[in-house]
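Protocol step 4 of 5: obtain the predicted structure for the target chain.
Materials: sequence only (see below). No template structures provided, no constraints applied. The aim of this step is simply to have a reference model before the mutagenesis design in step 5. Sequence pasted as it appears in the construct record:
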Amino acid sequence: MGSVSVVVAGKNRPQELQRLLESLRAQTLQPTEIVVVDDASEPPLPQFSGSLQFRNDVPRGACQARNLGFRNASGKYVFIFDDDAEIRDTSLIERAVALAERIPQVGAIGFRQLTPEGKTHWMQPAAGEQIDWFRAFMDSAR
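Step 4 output (structure tokens):
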């Protein structure tokens, strides 16, 4: 399987970010690298063991922070997670990489989003439990 980078844009949520990092360490396929971009947290985010860290001194927003992380990622596959995410399925990264290797024309894979209570998140781009194919994010036409 190809190498895996994880990019996380973070701001002012060190405990949540620590929980995400712990869930990444529990994955059956370990990321080759974890790139954390601190988007001007006050105080700055602490150094997290085993991660590459970058910092914006002025807030640039999550999208620009993710882009900075993406530019510094070296993996064949790059996963982007929010700093308050938690990955409860320990085989998620392994299964996503296997899917990407099985179907090389796939450009992006989105994961099901749940609230802490286990309900479907309001921003979930697609409903259902099965793999679904879309031309673009939030595209309901197939």
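Step 4 remarks: The two ends are 29 Å apart (CA to CA). Helices lie at 14-25, 62-72, 92-102.
Proceed to step 5.
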